[in-house]
Amino acid sequence: MASSSSLTLLASPSSPPRNWIHHVFPSFHGPDVRKTILSHIVKEFKSKGIDIFIDNDIERSKSIGPELIEAIKGSRIAIVLFSKNYSSSTWCLNELVEIINCRKVLGQTVITLFYEADPTDIKKQTGDFGKVFEETCKGKTEEEIRRWKHALTEVAQIAGFHSSSTKWETEAEMIEAIVTDVSNKLNLSSPSSDFDGIVGMESQMTKMRRLLPLDSDESVRKIGILGQSGIGKTTLARYIFNQYSQDFQTSVFINNIRRNYDIPAYSDKHSVKLYLQEKLMSQVTDDKDIKVPHLGVIKDRLKDKKVLLVLDDVDQSVQVEAMANETCVGPGSLIIITTQDQRVLKASGIDHIHKVDLPSDDEALQIFCINAFCQNYPKDGFEELAWKVMDLVDYLPLGLEVMGSYFRGMSEQEWTEALPNLRAHLVRNGEIANILKFSYDALCDEDKRLFLHIACFFDGELVEMVESCLEESFLDVRQGLQVLSQKSLISTEHRTIKMPKLLIQLGREIVRQEYPSEPGKRQFLNDAKDIEAVLGDDNAGNSSVIGIYFDHNKKITSSTCERAFERFSNLQFLKIVGKGINPRSMNYMSGKFRVLKWSQFKMTCFSLSFNPEFLIELDMSYSGLTKLWKGNKPLNSLKRMNLSSSKRLKKLPDLSSAIDLYYLSVGYCESLVELPSSIGSAINLIFLDLSGCSSLVKLPSSIGNAINIQRLNLSYCSSLVDLPASMRNLGRLSELELEGCSKLEVNLANINLESLDNLNLTGCFLLKSYTESSTDIQEPDSWRGRISRLPRIVLRGMKKPVSLLPLVVGEHVSDSLLLRSYHESSTDIQELVDPWIGRISRLTFLNLSGMKKLVSLPQLSEIAMKIMELQTMRALFVSVM
């Protein structure tokens, strides 16, 4: 394969293509080559339709004129023909300086031909070439000489064609190789329509340019392009290849390695590398039958070449080791690897990684509309339908393109009729399924099982809950989740598992296909029709089913049979959203439940036979329960319980055994009168939500034993009258919400204020006033000044003046930030009398909205006030000095 020039990557590859005047500009010393090799090259160029600039009619002088400069700038490729007397011409040397400038600024491709001249002599200005150059430099300025030397040195380092090379048996062979190379480069640099209509490419390239070696660089750069299947990794890599390949001596794009290069079974690592290197060399040399006898062949062939290599869809690190070893290519080479497996990049030591994200709303709409309507926006009447389809495929570019093409030409009615079927069977589309399923097929059996569990049940769940629920069924759930995440099959941002919608459908379809006509034999049930069929069949045996997830607006028409859940003897995971299922009875339920989530559950109590021993999460929000069950049940495994908005719930179960419970929400359980004293046994409880429990009168003193509570929400507990003194034991309490506790006599001495980050007392009308002489507090100094960490106190809706002096004034008040916001909105207050308001130099926010009778403000001149809210102030006159 003929070698050619080297070129630094363009600084702005996305800029509009130049209007080139010529294909090729030759720089040469006429007396040496015009009538010999140059004439043959010109002839061959013309026969191939390549336009070469010839300066026959330009009058030569010591400096090159504007016409010649424009010719150089207007040529896609510059060929420098070095001959023994090239440096005798200041004209040639000045041309060379201009060519170097165009190479750097315009991205012009430079090809070198050493015709009876030694590249080393040119680079170092030595030998006969150096002697000629020395004569030319006589009488010239130092700046001219410096520019000439720099240009000669730089261009001489570009690997090129050598007339003395033994590679050529005849000069004609070399000329043919030159013409072929120039022709190939012109084809690559021609404006391409391959990427016309590709939406979002510029936003991706903006991020990619930060990783590309845009400046001349002697090192080899490896870049990973990471993302899920169908998101556009290959398209981005092809775009970069198309933009930059002409700037490298050798450019190779190896497509779809994961599918096209199956590694032979039972091969040792050495054999695998030889096999992969043969595949690489066959593309480099365009020789399908090439043999690679040892692992040094690639290095021998490419070590001195500047190479652009793209390895597309890599899934094993050995592929990178064999085909993308940086020691095997020359300085300035660029290796790009696309993969959906982050582990491959890490194992290969690739730190420069670009993660391809899903397109924005606007970009996704454009992608879909281009394929559906052949325009960038929806046709009239199709706007809402377009967004529904886009949401269906989760904005995945592959899905947007396939679905856009599918709906093209359909009427609005046809769209509407097609959507319901697509929701259920989208991944049965061959083009989408083939791409997505390949990722699933590459998983080991253990990870396949985990993938299906998430697709069928655990999407959207917390990572720690999934780990807990599946730890008995898998060898290492955490490791499995990491594998799926690194392979871009799930994400775990914010500690929540999220799987793309198309992959969810793929997983569910894989499970369905195991027993297409016998749903009771599957592990998971998700389809409403299948669930209805199984629950309504008294004779069906369903011991294979371990999970049911019903999340449909559709209501199951027939009631479940009397002993429906008894037949699910191995049921571990049940999630039902909505009123779609109406059980006749729950007398027979699996004793293996690990997750039970049933919103709007209509029954008032579980049966005596219900066994929650293995239950890890219980979510019965919006239920009709008045109590969970009769008597005490073992809750040793329970970690999360959500009974919120169960308005008839009067009693919580005994929590003595719930030592692992860390989340308890009974918000807006309006009939709940009390918490069980066993709440103190929940020593690992972190979050407790009692908001809106309007019948709750008091908290048990045992709550002080739940010492790990960090967030306690009592807002709008409108019947709550007191907080137990034991709450002082809650040393980790960081957030306390008491808003709307209108009957609560807030005794701040009963609260551990040292750990608080947020205290909301809005609407606590009975907040006591604490002063130095307060008779209600025996030891006021025991808590005064202990809230130096508290960044926020909210006091909206106070009907009487309240002094916070004991809270915020301490011996070192001037040195510490004690309070960042002071809210007063008592409608009857005429003045702020608290002496501390003028003594907190760091107060930054003051809200006095709603104080309609306020007529004066305290001295605020020394306060670093940033925001003051004075809405609905009717009596206050503010003078601005």
UniProtKB/TrEMBL annotation:
<keyword id="KW-0611">Plant defense</keyword>
<keyword id="KW-0677">Repeat</keyword>
<dbReference type="InterPro" id="IPR032675">
    <property type="entry name" value="LRR_dom_sf"/>
</dbReference>
<keyword id="KW-0520">NAD</keyword>
<dbReference type="GO" id="GO:0043531">
    <property type="term" value="F:ADP binding"/>
</dbReference>
<dbReference type="InterPro" id="IPR000157">
    <property type="entry name" value="TIR_dom"/>
</dbReference>
<dbReference type="InterPro" id="IPR036390">
    <property type="entry name" value="WH_DNA-bd_sf"/>
</dbReference>
<dbReference type="InterPro" id="IPR058192">
    <property type="entry name" value="WHD_ROQ1-like"/>
</dbReference>
<dbReference type="InterPro" id="IPR035897">
    <property type="entry name" value="Toll_tir_struct_dom_sf"/>
</dbReference>
<dbReference type="GO" id="GO:0006952">
    <property type="term" value="P:defense response"/>
</dbReference>
<dbReference type="Pfam" id="PF00931">
    <property type="entry name" value="NB-ARC"/>
</dbReference>
<dbReference type="Pfam" id="PF01582">
    <property type="entry name" value="TIR"/>
</dbReference>
<dbReference type="InterPro" id="IPR044974">
    <property type="entry name" value="Disease_R_plants"/>
</dbReference>
<dbReference type="InterPro" id="IPR002182">
    <property type="entry name" value="NB-ARC"/>
</dbReference>
<dbReference type="Pfam" id="PF07725">
    <property type="entry name" value="LRR_3"/>
</dbReference>
<keyword id="KW-0433">Leucine-rich repeat</keyword>
<keyword id="KW-0378">Hydrolase</keyword>
<dbReference type="Pfam" id="PF23282">
    <property type="entry name" value="WHD_ROQ1"/>
</dbReference>
<dbReference type="InterPro" id="IPR011713">
    <property type="entry name" value="Leu-rich_rpt_3"/>
</dbReference>
<protein>
    <recommendedName>
        <fullName>ADP-ribosyl cyclase/cyclic ADP-ribose hydrolase</fullName>
        <ecNumber>3.2.2.6</ecNumber>
    </recommendedName>
</protein>
<feature type="domain" description="TIR">
    <location>
        <begin position="20"/>
        <end position="186"/>
    </location>
</feature>
<dbReference type="InterPro" id="IPR042197">
    <property type="entry name" value="Apaf_helical"/>
</dbReference>
<dbReference type="GO" id="GO:0061809">
    <property type="term" value="F:NAD+ nucleosidase activity, cyclic ADP-ribose generating"/>
</dbReference>
<dbReference type="GO" id="GO:0007165">
    <property type="term" value="P:signal transduction"/>
</dbReference>
<dbReference type="InterPro" id="IPR027417">
    <property type="entry name" value="P-loop_NTPase"/>
</dbReference>
<dbReference type="InterPro" id="IPR003593">
    <property type="entry name" value="AAA+_ATPase"/>
</dbReference>
